[in-house]
Structure formats: C-alpha cells, structure tokens
Amino acid sequence: MQLPESQVAVVEAASADEATSVDALAAATELPPETVTGAVFELEEEGLVAVDERVDETIALTDEGREYADTDLPEIRLYEAALEAGADADPVSMGRVIGASGLEGPQVDIALSNYARKGYGAIEGGEITADPDADPSADAEANALDALAGSEETPIDGVEIDDDTLDQLERRGLLDRSETTVREVTLTERAITELMAGIETAETVGQVTPELLTSGEWQDVEFAEYNVEADAERFEGGKVHILRQTAERVKDVLVGMGFQEMEGPHVDADFWINDCLFMPQDHPARTHWDRFALEQPTHIDELPADLVERVERAHREGVGDDGEGYHSPWDEDFARALALRGHTTSLSTRYLSGEQIGEIEPPARFFSVEKVYRNDTLDPTHLLEFFQIEGWVMAEDLSVRDLMGTFEEFYAQFGITDIEFKPHYNPYTEPSFELFGTHPTTGELVEIGNSGIFREEMLEPLGVECDVMAWGLALERLLMLMYGFEDIRDIHGTLCDLELLRDTEVTY
Ligand SMILES: N[C@@H](Cc1ccccc1)C(=O)O
C-alpha cells in the first residue's frame, strides 16, 4: 500500500506491543507533534493504528509562586518579624513590624489578608499579635510551594498535596492548572500485515507553492489532506481592543438611528468647552484642579468676536425678559485658555454655533465617540481619560419623552433594557437627567451618562432657535454593563486583564 511520508514514518516508529505517545513519536520521527497527530488520525481512520486518549492535569507555579518558594510567603515573613518584635507576648505596632519585615507594596496587603486566616495571630486597631504556637514549617501552602518549585510542570496525579491547599494556591494566583490531552498509539494487526507486504511512500504535497502553480505541476500532484480536528498550538493573534470594537459598534448603531458624526480638537479653548455651555467662569469644575491646562500654547488664537459678545452677554445679563445673568466675572482671556477637553460637548457647541460646518437646519442629529480627559482620582470606575458618546438632536418641540425614548432605543441595541433616570443639574440643561444601568454580576446601579435639554441661555447666543436635547454617555461604563467586568482598569492600562481582552466576543 501507499501512504504519505509522515504516515509511513509514524507506522515505522510505532509498535504493536507497546503504546507510544505522540511526543515520543515526534521525537523518533523528527516531525513536529502537530504533523504526527495529523498522521495518527489518518492512520486511525485507515485502521492501521489504535489511539488511546487521556487527559492529564498538570500544575505549575506562577512567577509569583516561584518568588515565594524562594523568599517565603509574605504572611510567614510578617509572622517572623512579629515574633522578633515580641508580638507573641504583647501587641506591637503594625507599622514597626511591617518595617522590620521588609515587605513592600502589594506584599503588605497579601501578608495582612493571609495572616489571621492561617492562625499566625491577630491584627487589631493598628497592632499585631503573634500566636506563639503557630508553626511556619507546618504551613501547608509554603510546603506545597517548596514541593512544586523543583519542576516546570508536575502531573497532578503524582503530587501529595491536598485539594484545599491546591485550590487556595490557585486562588492566590500562585499556581496554574492546565490540561493536556495525551494520545498513545499502538499498531493494529492490519498494520503489521501491511508492513510485511511493504508500505511505500506516496508523494503528497502539503503546501501549494508559486512554483507548483506556475509550472502547472499542481494538476498532477496529490495533496495531503487537512485534518481540521487535530490539536494545534494556540495562537494569540493581534486583535482590535474591545473598547475600540464597541466604539465602532456604537457608531454604527447611531448612524443607523440617523445621526451624523462630529469631529474636532482634543485640546480646545475653554470658550467652546465651558463658556458656550453657560458654565460660569467661577464654576468649581473650571478651577485648575479639574482641568488639564496647556503649557504651550496657553491660549487659542481666535474666537468669533460676535459669538464671544453674545455668550458674554448671556453670562452677564441672562437671556429673555426674566433672564438673570450670573453676576460673576467674565473675561475673554479666561475663555481663550486652552485645555484638554473634559467632555465632547465642546464639539456640540462648535457645531451648534455654525462655526464648524455652517448653519445646521432642524431636524438634525449629531454624535461623536471620542476621548475626554478629567483630573479624577483613579478607582474602579474612574480613569483620567475615557470615551464619551456625545449626541444631540435638534428639532421643534422636543420633550423629555423623546430623550428617554432615544436612550431606550439606543441601549436596547446592546441588550440593556433596564435604564433608570435620576433628576440632575447641569448649568446648560433644564431639565437634566443622569442615566443608570444595572451591573450584570454585582447588581449595583452604575451611572452611565448625563443628559438634558439645552437651555435658552446656551442656545440663544449660539443662534439656535429650536429645541436641542443632548447627552454624554460613558463608553467604558456601557462596556461594563455588556461584559460584566467590575474594574475599568481591567480593560485599560498596565493592570488590564489580557484574558478578558482576548476572549471577550464583541457581537454585532
Ligand atoms: N457634558 C456632560 C454630558 C452632557 C452633554 C450634553 C447635555 C447634557 C449632559 C458630561 O460630561 O457629563
């Protein structure tokens, strides 16, 4: 009989008396394990080999696990420092013991959260005690780390570590479990018969080359069959970040709802970011604490003079018969100062004023999905920059129902159907609403946006004569509701969760 080269090599390397693993066959034939696996499947189908499959579980220490196998677990280092400081007799100040332990950064938290759990002592009111009877040499986790530190990977069947300890180490991120499928191959009777009769190598081609194509030889050769079920090496290809993918999806949804996209500068004059929004110049959000000012250049060159005059008048005198201005200072130089935009509503003011693309006639709908910058304190829901989904609708006679209906329609496209509204205040909208959604795993209400109907004091100076409803929604918060992660830093920055980014499916 004739067989392709790799199959002949496998048949010759395998035996009828003894099962041989794919790895051993790969070594013997000098073929890559994937090729051997493919050949083995083909041979099995031909009835030439029997394949025995089992799943082996192995465990391996993570880098952090290896580090503690070398230097001791942080809680043990804390216990030893506590003993040294006499905490087995009287409580000692925590600061002193931590200082003496040499623990630093996150290791301090790790030590503290495991210390009492493992009976090394107690921590209360800034003081630490050490239990004189605790015995670090009997620490099951430390002993397990030592036992595993010797090899890269250990088959789980061979280790004498109890399940609770293994689970605990896995939870602490000190140990990884993995599964591999081991295939063992034995020749069948039929293979022996064929071998005795003589097996020849059939010329097969594994890959189409330019030469095969140009010479026309491809028409005569026999191609090796692909086995799409064979195990292959996992390949982590590059991929568009889920935030970008979702931003694209949001844009598609809004375009589908009849919106046009706005664009404009990330660095802009306070005039467009704040003054045009009827934000008084002494508003707390306009202090240097909250904005990222520009050092070079500090000011925009030009602002439209007539618009500046109308905006200044609205600030000083208000708009309409009953209008009251802010009676607060207004200074053009202050309005010309440049900063990173804290919201993309600066794009809306540029467009609504007619400065960006000329006069806009109602009905009109505009949006942007762009980055904004705020000097916030970092926490699970705040970053210094995020993406805002800005939007507005200009039409005669808009009401709050139009606003709410638009949100329900928009969020429903992302499977979010339980939006809640809370009355809110913005200097530039009346009424105003904050939007909330429910986090899919924690059940907590998450603020996802801010919205309202632009007030006369804003629209009149911009020269807009009909109603405009508008909003700024946080793209990252939408992602939280869609994919259930709890910390925004899982998707941004150095602490991001690569597995989440790799495996999250963005569905259209
Ligand atoms: N600028 C607001 C969002 C908003 C835009 C337009 C109208 C109302 C609210 C914010 O950043 O929170």
TrEMBL record:
Its cofactor is Mg(2+). It is found in: Cytoplasm. Its EC number is 6.1.1.20. Binds 2 magnesium ions per tetramer. The keyword Magnesium applies. The keyword Nucleotide-binding applies. GO terms for cellular component: cytoplasm. InterPro entries: aa-tRNA-synth_II, aa-tRNA-synth_II/BPL/LPL, Phe-tRNA-synth_IIc_asu, Phe_tRNA_ligase_alpha_bac/arc, Phenylalanyl-tRNA_Synthase, WH-like_DNA-bd_sf, WH_DNA-bd_sf. Belongs to the class-II aminoacyl-tRNA synthetase family. Phe-tRNA synthetase alpha subunit type 2 subfamily. This is Phenylalanine--tRNA ligase alpha subunit.
